[in-house]
Amino acid sequence: MSRMDSAIRVRSLVKRFEDLVAVDGIDLDVRVGECFGLLGPNGAGKTTTIEILEGLQRPTSGEVELLGLPWKAHASELRARIGIQLQETELYDKLSAQETVRLFRSFYPRRIAVADALAQVDLTDKKDAWVQKLSGGQKQRLAIACALVSDPELFFLDEPTTGLDPTARRSLWEIIRAMRSRGRTVVLTTHYMEEAEKLCDRIAIMRKGKVIALGTPRELIARLGAEEIVEVESEPALPASFFCAIPGMAGVHADGAGFRLSVREMHATLPLLVDALRERSARASRLTTRTATLDDVFVELTGTSMGEEDAIAEQARAAAQAGRGGRRRSRAETEEPA
């Protein structure tokens, strides 16, 4: 990929915190105009990687270029050309929606009209409402409007739909699709596999500071060696070795009280599974079949489902918020990047 086609170029990126290697020599290329997903279990290094790309942390070593420019020599220019929506953006309760966007607009040399930014996130009818009167989904959309007001070429979205109801979540999906249709580049982190599968052109999965998989959603799913899944619980409970011995199995993973089986040919494998259970004088107390998803890829690569990661992430956020008695700062309040 040429530098002109690349919105983000990362080479041999390393970030150490004393004895901890959070990011361990990764390479990444994000193409202009694509929605790129960065996924991984907690502690994988994805948040550190994103914060380095956003200019909020200094790398220990390696090369990072955004829009063909390094942060070190072009910090002011890059701040004006990128937009960032953090996991938590604390806005001022006693400002209206349009006053909030107008405040953020004043920070940038290149900008669009306040009304246009609000229209892009469908908040025109809430322009005079105080922030404290907005719903959770409306506040998320307002945070995105604050980042959109600079008309960014590159947009970072850090778990933008966490905690939102399904309607609000899908509303934000449409905003992301609209940004892509305008030729903007989007980098998305999320704990929702359905979200990543529907929105992202390509996805990188991180584990222990490294990128362990990279490709389109369909390419990653194809890596399973199977496109269909059987979820099964048996009475009496049987070991994983029993299911591994059944012909046609591409993978067997513990899943609660049962197993998640990746199969190559459902029509051939399912009868063999039923026969094998009968021969062991066992029965399936639960048996469901479905098409393979990104969550199955995540389990295969990391040993943890993204649903479990989402629950862990919610608990961690709640504990951190209670412990620090404060808040994560908005982009307007962050320090100068390296």
Written overview of the protein:
The protein has 338 residues and is α/β, with parallel strands linked by helices. The protein has 2 domains: 3-220, P-loop containing nucleotide triphosphate hydrolases (Rossmann fold, 3-Layer(aba) Sandwich), CATH 3.40.50; 225-291, Alpha-Beta Plaits. Helices cover 37% and strands 28% of the residues. It contains 12 helices and 14 strands. A 6-stranded mixed sheet has the order 6-7-8-3-9-10. The protein has a 4-stranded antiparallel sheet with strand order 2-1-4-5. A 4-stranded antiparallel sheet has the order 12-13-11-14, sandwiched between helices. A hairpin with a 2-residue loop joins strand 9 (202-207) and strand 10 (210-215). Helix 3 crosses helix 4 and helix 3 (97-105) runs parallel beside helix 5 (136-148). The chain is globular and about 75 Å long. Mean pLDDT is 86; it is low at 308-338.
